[in-house]
Amino acid sequence: MACDPVIIAFDTSAAHCAASVLVGDQIRASIVRSMAKGQAETIPLLLDDVLEQAGQTWNTVNAIAVGTGPGNFTGIRISVSLARGLALARALPAIGVTQFDAAWATVDANVVATVSAPRDQVYFAARDQGTDSAKLGAPCDAAALGLPVLPPLNAQTLVEHIAQVGRHRLLQGHPNSRPVPFYIKPADAAPSRDIVPQRLT
Known about the structure:
It is built from five helices and nine strands; from the N terminus they run βββαβαβαβββαβα. It is of the alpha/beta class. It is globular.
């Protein structure tokens, strides 16, 4: 693998579509569009646009990096599904990157990364404990860990960090071609209340 691979990264884990192209260690283009819905229709076109802005094509891309959450349940599934489909169709590695890993990418110290969550809450995790320690709570719960607390990343910084983490993992030889959604709590969906019909014997 060349030391300056082309990485296309994208994320739809919140009310946005965000995409970025990293060539070597330089971000060549980033596009962010705020939207509460319509990500599934928008993100494929956005990827073509960001590649064009970066002066690249799908034929020059070496790997895909995708945000896996935490965040919006449907949004995460949209981007992860697209990444896996593109990886299969184009024979490219697809690398899943959590928002926590993206936040820790440029920090050496043990800090708490936070991600915005519904109802004025945050998802949070300490770097030395990894993503397995991630929890949902109030901002004061994150502060109670007694470590410096990083604020949530904005969409552009997030997707650019996802690209950087993807490059690092690719060069280290640890790509994952089957990224999976990273959920901390189940989706806010109630089970069906329909009564199961009784079988007549």
